[in-house]
Design goal:
The chain folds into two domains: 82 residues, RimM (Elongation Factor Tu (Ef-tu), domain 3, Beta Barrel), CATH 2.40.30; 62 residues, PRC-barrel domain (SH3 type barrels, Roll). It is built from two helices and 13 strands; from the N terminus they run E-E-E-E-E-E-H-E-H-E-E-E-E-E-E. The strands form three sheets. It has a six-stranded mixed β-sheet with strand order 11-10-9-8-13-12. The chain has a five-stranded antiparallel β-sheet with strand order 5-6-2-1-7. Strand 8 and strand 9 form a beta hairpin. It is elongated.
Amino acid sequence: MSSSRICVGAISGSFGVRGEVRLKSFCAIPEAIADYGPVASEDGRQFRITLTRPVAGGLGARLTGVATKEEADALKGTQLYVGRDKLPALGDDEFYHSDLIGLEVRDTGGTLLGTVAAVHNHGADDILEVQGKGEALLLPFTRAIVPTVDLTEGRIVVDPPEEDE
């Protein structure tokens, strides 16, 4: 496991004029971000989250210590973390993105393709970004394409789709 902290959300800007923020949650249930206790920024600041309403692109929220629009604006782009021990245990075949980043990726024949550089989600399934010697390879994170994830061995086996000629 790659980290004792997990990024559970990010502040995407201010909302309104009274210090509310627009919060993007990375939790399976977006509102759960407020249930984990205080969240911390990369620089160590801690905030308690009080959700106020759904807003376009996320959740409206109040953070402790943030009272003005200017203070909320200054937090734009801030990632929010909680300790791994605060998060629920995952079921079989479920993974935190941070556990996948850095894993070695091999095809079903054993050829090294690279390592997982990032995990993206643009509203549908997750997409693994695999960085090898050439261009980044983007693979859907589905059972058909990624039949094996072995966190103990630090590797993923993939069966990439055939390329069209």
